[in-house]
Write a structure and sequence with these properties.
Length: 294
């Protein structure tokens, strides 16, 4: 693949999915697009840019699908789930005891292991929440992996990665040589197609946001935009959970690290106050008086 074709594909992937590819990723690009080329009747990946330049939405979707990393497993990096069980959920249950409503966002959920891990934890340790209005919203850019997640059907290899055997027995049903998560847990999760490059305002607000092991694929400006938009979607007292190798330092001042919990972030109250003050200054005088009165 020549340099101009690689640059065309790299630009498309950056603009449509936030995926950043350096020139050292040419081999990776060609390898992953081999099957895509064959699917569309092309002899080699280097023919893909020519077809895309003439317009082919199906091919573009398949290119993005092929280049999206969907690595995941149940209870990945156990620490966030321990923090959720011991600290985050008990605190939020106290804060939300009047509204009795909790919403959790699993961003870039892939084939659903993270969102179902959250559902299992809530089912096992917080039976009180069965009487609450509880919603786990799991999103991903890929329709293919979302269909798999909705089915809740996993191979022996997938359920052996991070899932204790007692949870397998309790929450799954065996279907021939596969395992399907029980229907009551599948009903706890709503899967939606969503691109993290888009504004999540349509998803509503959340008490907890999982955005783990996905920001590392984006450039700094894209990370900043995603983090700042997520800060606007988090309700007071809520928490953002990132991957162990991810951070907000040097990227966004919309968040501050939790002082006790690793890889957990809270909304920066000072930054939020500054945003409100800027809005007040730009508002009409009568609106400013109303805000001050409230």
């Amino acid at each position: 693949m020549n340099g101009s074709d690689f640059e065309y594909l790299a630009t498309l992937l950056r603009n449509r999915a936030g995926i950043v590819l350096g020139e050292d990723k040419t081999y990776l690009l060609e390898t992953r697009l081999m099957a895509v080329a064959r699917k569309h009747g092309l002899s080699a990946p280097d023919q893909i840019p020519c077809v895309l330049r003439n317009g082919c939405p199906e091919l573009e979707a398949d290119v993005i699908e092929a280049m999206t990393t969907n690595e995941t497993l149940f209870f990945r990096d156990r620490h966030p789930f321990d923090a959720l069980q011991r600290d985050i959920l008990p605190e939020l249950i106290t804060l939300r005891e009047q509204s009795r409503c909790l919403r959790i966002w699993s961003a870039a959920c892939s084939t659903g292991q993270e969102s179902y891990s959250i559902a299992m934890l809530i089912r096992d340790f917080f039976p009180l929440l069965s009487t609450w209005q509880l919603e786990i919203v799991a999103t991903d850019i890929s329709p293919l992996v979302l269909n798999r997640a909705r089915d809740g059907l996993y191979t022996n290899f997938e359920v052996q990665r991070g899932l204790p055997v007692q949870l397998l027995v309790r929450h799954f049903e065996q279907t021939q040589d596969m395992w399907r998560i029980r229907s009551e847990l599948r009903r706890m999760v709503t899967f939606r197609e969503f691109n993290l490059l888009d504004d999540p305002v349509g998803l509503g607000t959340f008490d907890i946001i999982f955005c783990r092991n996905v920001l590392l694929y984006f450039d700094v400006q894209t990370k900043r935009t995603i983090l700042e938009r997520m800060s606007q979607r988090l309700r007071t007292g809520g928490a953002l959970l990132l991957g162990a190798s991810e951070t907000v330092y040097g990227i966004s001042d919309a968040w501050v690290p939790d002082q006790q919990l690793r890889a957990v972030y809270r909304r920066n109250a000072r930054q939020l106050l500054g945003s409100i003050e800027r809005l007040m200054k730009s508002a009409a005088p009568e609106t400013r008086l109303q805000w001050r009165a409230t």
